[in-house]
Amino acid sequence: MSFTGFLSQLIEIVIAVALAPLLTGWVNQCHAWLQNKSAPALWQPYRMLHKLFNKESMVADHASRLFRAAPYVMFGCMVLACAIIPTLSTDLPLAPAADAIALVGLFALARVFISLAAMDIGTVFGSMGARREMLIGFLAEPALLMVLFSASLISQSTSLTTIVETLVHRELTIYPGLAFAGVAFTMVSLAENARVPVDNPATHLELTMIHEALILEYSGRHLALLEWAASLKLFAYSCIGLALFFPWGIAGAQAPVSMLLALPALVLKLAIGGFLLALLETLSAKMRIFRVPEFLGTAFLLAVIGMLVELLLSH
Q1: Distance CA 312, CA 216 (A)
Q2: For 76-126, what is each residue's pLDDT tens digit?
Q3: What gap in Å lies between CA 191 and CA 200, rounded to an integer?
Q4: Rounded CA gap, 271 and 277, in Å?
Q5: What is the value of pTM for the model shown?
Q6: Cα–Cα distance list, 186 to 168, 173, 192, 202 (Å)
Q7: Cα–Cα distances in angstroms (integers) from residue 49 to residues 193, 222, 239, 251, in the given order
């Protein structure tokens, strides 16, 4: 492991942990502006985390160790996911140890733990949210894998750093398969991050909530870790989209100085992506929970079409 590689890996983790709540705050601000509402402060997620970390965690008497460990496992999975996604540089020592399949596995591991923890207390809302979360994961993960496989056909590798390096150093070319994959990835991202039209993070209606039902029994530092992990998940999915479809600006393995320009480029792309996410949510309506399988089934179909198009064009 070179010193530049270790430094770029460390900087990437620190940037992800530090900027993830800021991205959530920016999306909330844009969402309020587009609806002609008074926007919350950009730093509101940091204030919320500070308040929750200073509060006492109330845990049910019959809660098991799984309930207490789930927030730490979920936070750790999201940090690891952000660590293997090339956001500033492709010189990441952790990247060769985990490819796109392992990345999806990290998301799945976090989902299993939070779903088991929600059922551990035995409340109706927790069990309902866990069932819905596993249904969404069962449908979204194959679609995400197909999206990543569509991009891997271009570079002949499932390593995200190899995919980014291949796309950056190739001449500017239109890939029809990536167009289908991009639409599918957008649909999967909305579902995985509990956004409209699949879920509404601003409501606590028992008939519609999914993510909020999973964390109703948490408080204090446990709730802070879960909220931070949710912001990291949004950050991770945003960076996956940027790495696959807009990789320009990411520093190469042999260009550590380019990281000075990669950070402003990343912030700019995340700001644009956050605004587009808020705009998409504003223009969309919350769908019924029974329509979610059709929504994610369409995403899977589009991702498979994108992969088939890449296969046909490569031969």
Answers
A1: 48
A2: 999 999 999 999 888 888 888 788 999 999 999 999 999 999 999 888 888
A3: 10
A4: 10
A5: 0.94
A6: 21, 21, 10, 20
A7: 19, 10, 22, 31
